[in-house]
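Troubleshooting entry. Yesterday's outputs looked truncated, so today I'm pasting the complete records for two proteins to confirm everything comes through intact. If either block looks cut off, that's the bug. Protein one:
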Amino acid sequence: MSLLLCVIAPRTYITKANGHRVQFNENKILSTCRRAGADKQTAQRIVKKVKSQIYQGIGTDNIYKLVLHAISEEKGGRGLHQRYKLKEAIMNLGPNGFAFENYVGNVLQHYGLEIKGIRSKIKGKCATHEIDLIAISRNKKFLIECKHNSYRGGFIGLKVALYTHARFLDTLPKFEAEAIVCNAKVSSQAKKYAKCIGQQVFSWRYPPKQSLEKIIEDYKLYPITILNLNHVELEKFSQQNIMIAKDLLKYKESLLSKLTGISEKRIHNLTKLVEQIISK
């Protein structure tokens, strides 16, 4: 009688930003690379390189760095490298949140909504509220709450959905609909509550067909921070309400330099990088 010996490879566990340990899933890297514009063969090469350097307990931040390094070794991978940094770029739209609100307003305009106000003071029945964004879509006026997270592992909980709805109720009938836009994941409780009351949510990975990053990727609405700007440059572009990278291409380089005070050489380099990013 023969004896069949099965050798099972040990599972590799990684450490997330919140300290939780989860099993390493190479498909997450593969799918993110594909969404960022890598072809199947390129994505598989990147995953193979990263897998060879993974060890028990490695942090997700270190995995992220390994992926970026692997991408940098690919021929013509500069655009892919920057697109892969989308989540980081959005986190850099802070820390006070104003830049994120301006960016979301720009995204919604490109998405077909009309922005009627940013950080507007609206008097309700019982209190005066600062509304992050007021937008009109299909003759509906939306009250929009923008929530920005500047660190990995953050999430939006039930409390945000509750107070957004409370503002909506207090300001009736000035608004016909309400929505939350955020760059973090949303808790199951918040999703359930939002669905129950008819509150729209656009967040990281949710809803699957209209999540924030899917809208950005589908319409090439990458934030200006995907260009590795310093704080001064971000402030100067924000003052001109230029929050989407591809909008740089609407201007002559000399005019954009004059408007922002950024050197024409730097503007030229930024516009060339934009072209690489949106060329996928």
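Protein two, checking that the full record survives here as well:
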Amino acid sequence: MNTIVAEVRPAESKDAAALAAIHELSWRSAYSGLIPHGALNRMLGRRDAGWWDKAVRHRAAVVVIEFDGRAIGYATLGLNRTPALKVEGEIYELYLLPEFQGVGFGRRIFESARDMLALRGLKGLAVWTLAENQPAMRFYEGMGGTDIAEGSEAFDGRVMRKIAYVWR
């Protein structure tokens, strides 16, 4: 009997094309209709395989989740960029291919990213998400995050609310 497992591991240069594809497909699924079309396309155009390869080679903290030998999601993480949140770590991005959402892979990569931040000595973590991204908000609330702050981000003149969740 074969057992198929999910593995979370640091991203490598060989993952660049998969990271670009996951980024594009997950962002189109999450943000089409929320972020103006032109702004979304420009943001996606900046994150091609070359961008990901360079990020990984320059030691950006990127982890990949693999299932059955295929990269299906990623998280990027590092130092908290918002000192007012009073935590040291931040998960900047956490995305899965749409067909792998809702079955536990998000929890697995989130926990791995949180553990990696703790191993780096960072206490607590923050995650920001757009307030209109209800699936992400439900996910972070389900993971025990506390909705602690609001901010905003503008996309082609459209100002959108974002919410910060923290884990102390």
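Both blocks look complete. Sanity check on protein two: The first strand starts at residue 6 and ends at 10.
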